[in-house]
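Need tokens for this chain, all 304 residues.
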Amino acid sequence: MPLLLSHHHHQLLLLLLLVAITASHGDSSDDGAYDPSMCLNQKYTCGSVSITYPFYLAGETKDAKGYDNSYCGYPGLGILCEDDDKPILQLNGAANYTVKSIDGALATVSLADPNVDDDRNPCPRPRIDRNVTLQEGSLLYFPDSAVDYLIFFIGCNFNFTFYKPSSIYPISCESFDDGPGPGLSFVLPDDAVPAGNWVQACSQVIQLPVHKYGAINLTDPGWTNGSEYASVLRQEFQLGWNESGKPPACIQCEGANSKGRCGHNRTGDFIGCLCPDGRVHSDNNCNKARRQHSKKTMTILNKM
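Here are the structure tokens for all 304 residues:
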């Protein structure tokens, strides 16, 4: 004998079917789910520094839209929180700087070189082999009003082709005698580098960002014996991040009508708007996606 369904039971079965279809297919703007734990929805404290979006924890990346190591934040803003609770920002993938503070209101982050934090080292030398740069696509920038540069010329061997300028004096520290090769080493403000091809005599040329400094007397023995330039290196310097540099998709995603977060893959490409409902929406508007979903649901229910 066939089972007769009441009108109420018929509606209930249709509703359950609708829920099942919606859960399995989503809507046209739905690009799948993501793990909401990858977003810093609340402040995370590493040491004494509070970390919030658009920064992200570099060790907490997840898979989103099929991209492994995706993150909820912006390129160049990944912070490592080490075991001793020291927040570290990698500027170019090689230069690790200690984060001293983040000021969201001023859009600045204060950094210090951990290689020169130890006051017992009177003559610190760079521990990287390239200039400090910023990741491509990063919102960070070196503000001219707050940052100057010191340039190290290491392992310089002069000859009849490359002459040493008479206006510069070598660093008189043993720490510069152990490589990368024999020769003299120098440290100069970037605006005091003499013109000419003499730099080709040096095995390494490294430019480091530092806090804005005043007048420097390069003939002062305190500069070449380490004490003066070391004090410049030990000061914190600030980077800014450019809010106006956000791509239009992210501005739309983060807007008051959406309140989403921007997701990027490990190469820094935007992959979608990470919405509070745990879904990635390709139209970059979390509220619009919810309204479309609700409208479709009501349309089907009204037809029952």
